Every structure is written in C-alpha cells, then in structure tokens.
Automatic annotation (TrEMBL):
Entry similarity comment: Belongs to the cytochrome P450 family.
CDD domains: CYP2C-like
Signal sequence segment: 1-25
Positions with a binding annotation for heme: 429
Keyword vocabulary terms for this entry: Endoplasmic reticulum, Heme, Iron, Membrane, Metal-binding, Microsome, Monooxygenase, Oxidoreductase, Signal
EC code: 1.14.14.1
InterPro entries named in the record: Cyt_P450, Cyt_P450_CS, Cyt_P450_E_grp-I, Cyt_P450_sf, Cytochrome_P450_fam2
Cofactor or coenzyme needed: heme
Organism expressing this protein natively: Prolemur simus (Greater bamboo lemur)
Name of the protein in its database record: unspecific monooxygenase
Length: 484
C-alpha cells in the first residue's frame, strides 16, 4: 500500500479516536463547534477579535456553548440572562478560578487562588480596603492627595502636546503604593519607574493577540515573561518592606495594608488552617498592584480620548463641576450623588471601553446541572462580558458612546443591572469600590483644573480600540492640558 495512503488512514483513525474520546468525555456539556486534535477550535477563532467569533458561535449554538482552546473545553456564557444566572444565581458553584498553566510554578494570591485561601484572603482584603479608618488618613484622603499630585504633574506639561499614558499610570500605581506601603513615590523616583516598567511589560503581553485564545496556547517564550513582577527581586523588595513593618508595627494604629495583614497573621498564628502567611502577604500585595494600576490608567486614558472626541460632553461635565464643586476646593465622594451627568459619563466610558471582554476565567467548583447541561467540576467558564455591556435590549445604541444610557428622562442617574465591567458575583473585582473612587476623583480633578485640547479636529479623532484581547487597549493620541 502506498505510504501516503497509510499516513492518511492513520491520521484519519487518530482524528476519529480523538473525536470519540472528546464526545464521550464531554458528557452533557453544551454544544459547540467540533474541535480538531491538539488545537481544538483555534482555527475557527478570529485571533484579532475573539468576541466576534463568540457572537457567531452563540447564534449557532445558543447562549451557552463549548469551545476548545487547545485540548481542554471551556464553556462560554453569552448574554446578560445566562451570565446573571451563572455568576449571581449560582454564584458559589461558578466561583472557582479557571486554570492558568503559566502560573503553575508561581504562588497564587487572592486573584488566581481557589478554596480556603481565596475565601480567607478575599474576605480580609475586602474588609481592609473598605475600612476607611485605616491609619490616620482615610482611603478617600489618599486618593484626593494623589489627585492633587496628578494635577501638578499635568501642569508641568505647560499646555504642550503630550501622551498622557505615563502620568495616568503613575497615579493609580501610587495609590496602591500608598495603601500597601503607606507612602507614595515621586513620579521620577527610580524604584517607582522600574515598577512602572514591569507593569507596562505585562500589559503589552496581556494585550497581545495570543491572549485572545488564552493561556492554553500561549507561546512558551511569552509565558516566561508574563507576570514578570513576580520575579525574585520583586519578592525580596516586598519582603524587606514587610520586615521593616514588623519592626515598627503598632497593633493599635495600623498604617497600611501590610500592617493590617501582619496583625491578622499574629491573630491567626495558632490556627493550623490559616492562610495568613508571610508568603500570602507578598503575593496578595502583587495582586493588588496587578489589578489596581493599569485598569484605572487605561480607563482614564480612554475617558480623555472620548471627551476630546465629544467636546459637548466635556462641557456638560465641567458645567456640573463648576456648579457642585467650584474651583476652590478638591472634589470629594459626597459630590458624586449631586453630579448625575458626570456619574453617567464615567459609567458609559467603562461600558464602551469593555476593558476585560471575557473576564478572568472562572471554573465550576462541583459537578452542576446548568440549563439541562452537566458541567463537570473544574470545567473552565468564560463569561463573555462584552455581550452584557453591549446588549441592545438594555442600551439603545450599544456601539455608540452615549452617557444617556445611564440617565433617565429627568436627567437623574439610572443604574443598570447590565453594568458589569467589574464582573459579577463572588469573583467580582474586590477593588471595585476603590476603582470607582479613583475614576471619579481623578477625572473630576483633571476637568476642574484643565480644558482639554485636541491636536486635530475632534471629528477626525479615531476612538477605535487597537487591541481587544485579554484587555482592551486605546489607540495612541496626544492632547494639551490647558490650565483653567
């Protein structure tokens, strides 16, 4: 027999065996496109915009379907109803964290952990971030201080054209430094600049096309670079700061997150099941940096671009700032309830940006029957948040930037259950409260002190995202900050 025929027959047998094993192993998983051996459904995915592929699959297979990103299945949730049903109505069962192969050799903190570690550390971190009496200054006071520093840095541009990316990244990064270490850094501090550089490297990798198809197919050379913040020098640096805190710790006057964690460690030292260890402190500090820096800076960057594109929106926000806050005091969170239009604008920026289109991968914590399908324990779940934030049933013009999506007929702020940029359920962003505070205080402080000037006609500004992979990335642009 011709060797080529033998090869074809062998490959065909392997393919049939693979398909049989997949079908027998899937049980009652939701339907989906037929996977190929090894690569799964990768050839059917649009790497530049996986969201379009998911939307097309949902039309063929319904709001719950299975895709193979490599050799393992992932169940995709498409649309508000099914995301709510899974993430909120069955929150406990869908509260697991999906597997990240490139994180296997790395210790996991509050973001990527599961089980008791996740529950204990998350509960503590939420409580600490919400405790506005931490130390002598509240978290709001720290954000206000950083907002003033941000304004001063923008003044140094002297109304010249500039790319705002770096300055807008410094502010939220400094906020995490202030919360974790008590002290902020000067924007030109060498240590701070190295930290910013590492964060930037990780963001570039996360926004690459490869991240569209998730870590199951991530190139090895990239996985080595990914999360480079978890390098030995970063751990050592955090450890030194924590050791310093131990030496000067006052249990009656915690200064920052590290102090609060060290106090908790002492309280739990006799608990054999406690997850509060020095190792957990260091990794959780990293998680707060990773989750709380680029998310805010990217949102602010895109907000300024959209405000340049829509000067009529900017004018209304500044009018509200003049009316409620004035020019002679700093914005505070009490102002927010009196500024419905500004609140609507910030919500619409987050909805329109769609920062994390497919959320961090979840996993089911036990075998569960969901919509007549049987999803085995440990199966990866991908909540497609784009399908919620851009749902035409809730938002009249989902593909258009329109603050009216969050305003009622009387101009009052209108909440929406479809607003899920922070995800939903038990795995929703634990820094949501801090993020909302930063976005409001940073943006209102900027618009209180500056007019925004575009270098081109606003009609010619392109607000199209240059990448929509693991995270969405705004395009490059420059603007002038004109002091008021």
């Amino acid at each position: 027999m011709d060797p080529a025929v033998v090869l074809v027959l062998c490959l065909s047998c392997l393919l049939l065996l693979f398909l049989w094993r997949q079908s027998s192993g899937r049980g009652k998983l939701p339907p989906g496109p037929t996977p190929l051996p090894i690569i799964g459904n990768m050839l059917r995915l649009n790497v530049k915009d996986i969201g379009k592929s998911f939307t097309n699959f949902s039309k063929a297979y319904g709001p719950v379907f299975t895709v193979y990103l490599g050799m393992k299945p992932a169940v995709v949730l498409h649309g508000y109803e099914v995301v709510k049903e899974a993430m909120i109505d069955h929150g406990e069962e869908f509260s697991g964290r999906g597997h990240f192969p490139f994180l296997f050799p790395i210790l996991v903190g509050v973001v990527f952990s599961n089980g008791d570690r996740w529950k204990q550390i998350r509960r503590f971190t939420l409580m600490t971030l919400r405790n506005f009496g931490m130390g002598k200054r509240s978290v709001e006071e720290r954000v206000q201080e950083e907002a003033r520093c941000l304004v001063e840095e923008l003044r140094k541009t002297e109304a010249s054209p500039c790319d705002p990316t770096f300055i807008l990244s410094c502010a939220p990064c400094n906020m995490i430094c202030s919360i974790i270490f008590q002290n902020r850094f000067d924007y030109n501090d060498n240590h701070f600049l190295k930290l910013m550089e590492k964060l930037h490297v990780n963001v570039n990798i996360l926004s690459s096309p490869w991240m569209q198809v998730r870590p199951w197919s991530f190139p090895p050379e990239k996985s080595v670079m990914l999360f480079s913040l978890r390098s030995p020098e970063f751990y050592v640096d955090q450890a030194v700061k924590s050791k310093e805190h131990q030496e000067s710790l006052d249990v009656n006057n915690p200064r920052d997150f590290i102090d609060c964690f060290l106090i908790k460690m002492e309280q739990e030292k006799n608990n054999q099941l406690s997850e509060f260890t020095f190792e957990a402190l260091v990794v959780t500090a990293f998680d707060l940096f990773g989750a709380g820096t680029e998310t805010i800076s990217t949102t602010l960057k895109y907000a300024l671009l959209l405000l340049l594109k829509h000067p009529e929106v900017t004018a209304k926000v500044q009018e509200e700032i003049d009316c409620v806050i004035g020019r002679h005091r700093s914005p505070c969170m009490q102002d927010k309830s009196h500024m419905p239009y500004t609140d609507a604008v910030i919500h619409e920026v987050q909805r329109y940006l769609d920062l994390v289109p497919t959320d961090l991968p979840h996993a089911v914590t036990r075998d569960i029957k969901f919509r007549n399908y049987l999803i085995p324990k440990g199966t990866t779940i991908l909540p497609f948040l784009t399908s919620v934030l851009h749902d035409s049933k809730e938002f009249s013009n989902p593909e258009q930037f329109d603050p009216g999506h969050f305003l009622d007929e009387s101009g009052n702020f209108k909440k929406s259950d479809y607003f899920m940029p922070f995800s939903a359920g038990k795995r929703s962003c634990l820094g949501e409260g801090l993020a909302r505070m930063e976005l409001f205080l940073f943006l209102t402080s900027i618009l209180q002190n500056f007019n925004l000037k575009s270098l081109v006609d606003p009609k010619d500004l392109d607000t199209t995202l240059v990448a929509k992979a693991f995270t969405s990335v705004p395009p490059f642009y420059q603007l002038c900050f004109i002091p008021v």
